[in-house]
Design brief:
The chain is of the alpha/beta class. Helix content is about 55%, strand content about 10%. The chain is built from 18 helices and eight strands. Helix 2 runs antiparallel to helix 6 and helix 3 runs parallel beside helix 6.
Length: about 425
């Protein structure tokens, strides 16, 4: 039964039928029922037909923008349907075809949500069966959930039961393997580069040495960095004004929960390795004295930490304790999305033990980050090294699409409390 459910969710017919019902039929039906006698039904009908075409274009793009399963597939969902609906609007404009803007907007939102949710469910439930060519650098794919690995010891091994072939394409393969891989490609069997597939499935970029090529591929886009800073500032200003009453209420509750200030201030490592003062709502009891040399341990939050207050536990689980960082965004020190800034004592410790740790400071730290939505809160060296690989993946794929993916996952985390301590 487990093998049937992933196939249904990932099946093109199922996704397309559901997408047309959710994105075209439902908005059309809801708008059609509210039409008054003097309104022209052609507006709604044109919108319905155009939406179906936009969905078809978006699905085709989504399945062709990337062939790699995992994070890259989910990241391709939004740009695919932006392009599909964008083409539709251009056609409507140039050919002066009347349409209903509200219905089209609702169709776009519902379509994108449908395909994002179904793709995420399909990836979680589907077992990816791969054949691994044991040449060059091999990755421990067998350790990943929902991945079944079979080692192909010879080119003539049968692959009829596999979904894809994985091989290190950077090495010089024997001629018999080159010919065999060409045959697989002609048979439309996906051939994945092992490192690229590992990055997409895990959402991490693991570096052994920071060569010139690696640095070039990890360097973030400067144009998006500038645009993002402007959007961050405007969004933080609007959010700060709207949330001012809530900020005041939370501050009062924190002050009443235990002795001490409402805000917690801590110097953290920021953009380009420059320290800054980060603000949070205080979630722990204040410590009067501490032993020398305890700065590192005090900077870490342990599981079920007894220093956390009752209101603090709720604030941490809901991530509301991070709201004062709106002020850090307005000062240009942080972003909404980016690697989480670490306390200075921890940052120096990590830099001493983890190569290339400082490279994560190439972009502004954020309130929410890729590592947080994939791994949660960590502090020990081995866990931080794993977290660093997530940060590198974010920097490498620095774009609006991965930011949107983080926003969606962050909303779920605020509901579920994943990773909170």
């Amino acid at each position: 039964m487990n093998n049937l459910r992933p196939v249904i969710w990932n099946r093109l017919r199922f996704q397309l039928t559901g997408g047309i019902i959710a994105g075209a039929v439902l908005p059309w039906f809801a708008r059609y029922q509210s039409l008054s006698p003097e309104q022209n039904p052609a507006l709604i009908n044109n919108t319905f037909l155009g939406t179906v075409v936009a969905i078809l274009i978006g699905v085709w793009l989504m399945r062709n923008l990337t062939i790699y399963p995992g994070s890259e597939t989910l990241s391709a969902t939004l740009p695919s349907f932006i392009a599909g609906y964008g083409i539709l609007i251009i056609v409507f404009f140039f050919f002066r075809i009347p349409y209903n803007r509200g219905t089209l907007l609702a169709a776009f939102v519902l379509t994108t949500l449908w395909f994002f949710i179904t793709s995420a469910i399909a990836q979680q439930r589907r077992v990816l069966r791969i054949g691994l060519v044991p040449l060059g650098e091999t990755w421990p794919f067998h350790e990943l959930p929902n991945v079944s690995v079979r080692v192909l010891h010879a080119p003539d091994t049968s692959v009829a039961d596999l979904d894809a072939i994985v091989v290190d394409l950077r090495v010089d393969l024997p001629n018999e393997w080159d010919r065999r891989l060409a045959d697989y490609a002609l048979q439309r069997m996906p051939i994945y580069h092992s490192k690229h597939l590992a990055e997409s499935l895990t959402g991490r970029v693991e570096l052994v040495h920071l060569s010139e090529n690696s640095a070039g591929s990890l360097a973030p886009r400067y144009d998006y960095m500038v645009a993002k800073s402007i959007i961050d500032w405007v969004a933080a200003l609007v959010a700060g004004i709207l949330l001012l009453p809530a900020l005041f209420v939370i501050a009062v509750l924190v002050r009443l929960s235990s002795p001490g200030p409402a805000l917690f201030r801590q110097e953290r490592m920021g953009y380009q390795g420059r320290p800054f003062t980060m603000y949070k709502f205080r979630t722990m009891r204040m410590l009067v004295d501490s032993e020398p040399g305890q700065a590192r341990s005090l900077a870490m939050t342990r599981d079920s930490d007894d220093r956390v207050t009752r209101i603090g536990r709720f604030l941490r689980k809901s991530r509301l304790d991070e709201l004062p960082q709106l002020f850090n965004i307005l000062r240009g020190e942080m972003s909404w999305i980016g690697p989480r800034p670490e306390a200075m004592v921890l940052s120096h410790w990590y830099e001493e033990n983890i190569p290339f740790y400082r490279y994560r400071h190439v972009i502004r730290p954020g309130i929410a980050g890729w590592a947080q939505v994939r791994q949660g809160h960590v502090a020990e060296i081995d866990e931080v090294r794993s977290k660093l690989y997530y940060d590198f993946y974010y920097i490498k794929h620095y774009s609006p699409w991965i930011d949107l993916l983080i926003v969606v996952r962050t909303v779920w985390i605020m509901i579920s409390g994943f990773g909170a301590r």
